[in-house]
Design brief:
The protein is an alpha+beta fold. Helix content is 28%, strand content 23%. It contains nine helices and 15 strands. Helix 2 packs across helix 4 and helix 3 crosses helix 4. The protein is elongated and about 75 Å long.
């Protein structure tokens, strides 16, 4: 039996799961991506092995991916548009599902691991495509760097060991935002693209603000730097405004901020307050850089940072003025004195908040 004939009896659901395995997912993460139980995924894999005579699901996934890549090279298996209702043995995924957590919508499916676009998780080859099916012309209309980053994430070699878990973490985080539809995440080796649409209506502004806040300051604990690129376009389809964010992988040895006092964008009472920052690891004692920013005022503080017993936190006593907006940096390009015990400067971070009038 030829390889194409061997795979002919596989259902779309079985192919979807195998594509995720080939892209580096486990049965557990594939289940989360598809909204299935782990038992349901394992049952489909067992059936796929029975049909094809494969000894293991991983081997079958690799063989199917290799065959699909071969087919694509000779033009046999173009990526077809698949509606959200396709695949009756999978739960339907309509845009705007109310369920919390991952809320994917199937936009289009190829079988090879290098051509997966499944609810946002996977790797999609789009070389030669004039228009992104989700973003439309957004990456063309925003000329600063969106087009170059859109191309980069698709040309960059995929680090499956990092990319697959990173895609899942980002899908879970952005998927929690009410009003975000058609969410898609693509990761390569050092960069991830998060794209989607903001549902039209009265909550659109709030959803867009939360998306921006997460992109700019809410992904550090997920393994990304606080540097990002963000673009948003108009609602040219009636499905809501498209957005795209590009996030950068953080080097494992770089310390980063995990918590602040006050929290980001908080509104605090005027008067005395504690300004604090906590890092992911113990830091050098007596070494710190609380820096001014042009995004807000620097509060009046006692100038004596105190380090916590575990070495991870620093606090100062400060005073807030009613109605004042504040912005404080922890390290910047010039001042890099927050350092780990082995002397690595912390990734620069910014805290913004204001005081009640």
């Amino acid at each position: 039996m030829s390889e194409p004939d061997r795979f002919a009896s596989l259902t779309e659901a079985e192919r979807q799961i195998l594509a995720l395995l080939a892209a580096g997912h486990t049965a557990k993460t594939a289940a989360a991506a598809l909204g299935l139980s782990v038992h349901g995924v394992n049952e489909r894999l067992r059936e796929a092995r029975r049909k094809t005579g494969a000894g293991s699901s991983r081997d079958l996934a690799r063989a199917l991916a290799a065959q699909e890549i071969c087919d694509e090279k000779i033009g046999v298996a173009p990526v077809a548009a698949v509606s959200p209702e396709a695949g009756p043995d999978l739960p339907q995924r309509a845009a705007g599902t109310a369920r919390k957590g991952v809320r994917p919508m199937v936009l289009g499916l190829g079988i090879a691991a290098a051509a997966v676009l499944l609810g946002g998780i996977g790797w999609q080859q789009e070389r030669g495509q004039a228009t992104d099916p989700l973003l439309g012309s957004l990456v063309v209309d925003k000329p600063h760097d969106a087009a170059a980053l859109h191309e980069r994430v698709r040309r960059e070699a995929r680090d499956a060991g990092w990319a697959a878990p990173a895609e899942t973490r980002l899908m879970n985080r952005f998927g929690m935002i009410d009003g975000v539809n058609s969410l898609r995440v693509l990761c390569g080796t050092d960069i991830c693209e998060v794209a989607g649409r903001i549902a039209p209506g009265g909550t659109a502004n709030a959803a867009l603000l939360e998306v921006q806040q997460v992109a700019f300051s809410g992904v550090q604990t997920l393994g990304f730097t606080n540097e990002s690129s963000f673009s948003v376009g108009g609602d040219d389809t009636g499905q809501g405004a498209a957005f795209v964010a590009y996030l950068y992988r953080r080097a494992a040895d770089v310390p980063y901020v995990v918590a602040t006092m006050p929290t980001m964008h908080a509104t605090i009472a005027p008067g005395p307050f504690t300004l604090g920052v906590t890092f992911d690891r113990p830091m050098q004692p007596g070494s710190f850089s609380f820096v001014k920013s042009d995004r807000g005022a620097y509060p009046e503080c006692d100038g004596t940072p105190r380090q916590s017993a575990d070495g991870r936190g620093f606090t100062m006593q400060c005073t807030a003025v009613a109605g004042q907006a504040y912005s404080i940096g922890f390290n910047n390009a010039q001042a890099r004195n927050f350092k780990s015990l082995d002397g690595v400067p912390a990734e620069p971070s910014l805290l913004s908040f204001d005081a009640k009038r």
